[in-house]
Amino acid sequence: MAELTFTITTFTAGLCFVIVGAIFLKYPPKKINPFVGYRTRLSMRNQQTWDEGNRYSNKLMMRLGAALVLAGIVFYFIPLDPMAGTIAGVLTVVAAAVLLLYLTEKHLRSLFDEEGNSIQKGQL
């Protein structure tokens, strides 16, 4: 029988990503706050960066969550050593979280300068 630690770790974390992403996509935080939402220096510059950062990150979180769930299902059929499964599962979830931050910041930087002003297409 396949080792379940990777499957349980990625499937559970992926399901959490999908649920949280869906909730915050439907009910995004309205105002910039220090408690809830996608909170980075750039996303908290102004309301426009806040709204876009939260919109983009929640959609991406749902996609990454779906990928984690799928990985959990696929790796259910691949035998892994229990310790290797645990380590691989945790590293996969951490990699998804880091990717979420990286891609969201990259997206925000493509739309806004460091002060949070919108960058016009074609502007030098």
What is the fold's blueprint, element by element?
Layout (H helix, E strand, L loop, with lengths): L4 H22 L20 H28 L7 H30 L13
Helix pairs in contact: 1-2, 1-3, 2-3
Could you tell me how far the N terminus lies from the C terminus, measured between alpha carbons in angstroms? 59 Å
Order of helices and strands: HHH
- Contiguous runs where pLDDT drops below 50 for at least 5 residues: none
Oligomeric status of the shown chains? Answer: single chain
Shape call: elongated
Rg (CA only): 17 Å
Question: Number of helical segments?
Answer: 3
Q: Major beta sheet, specifics?
A: none
- State mean pLDDT (0 to 100 scale): 92
| Class per helix and strand makeup | mainly alpha
Helix content: 55-70%
Describe this structure in words.
- It is a single chain.
- The chain is mostly helical.
- The protein is built from 3 helices and no strands.
- Helix 1 (5-26) packs antiparallel against helix 2 (47-74) and helix 2 (47-74) packs antiparallel against helix 3 (82-111).
- The model has no long low-confidence stretch (mean pLDDT 92).
Essential attributes:
mainly alpha; elongated; 124 residues
Task: Write a short abstract of this structure.
The chain is mainly α and 124 residues long. Helices cover 65% and strands 0% of the residues. Helix 1 (5-26) packs antiparallel against helix 2, helix 1 (5-26) packs parallel to helix 3 (82-111) and helix 2 (47-74) packs antiparallel against helix 3.
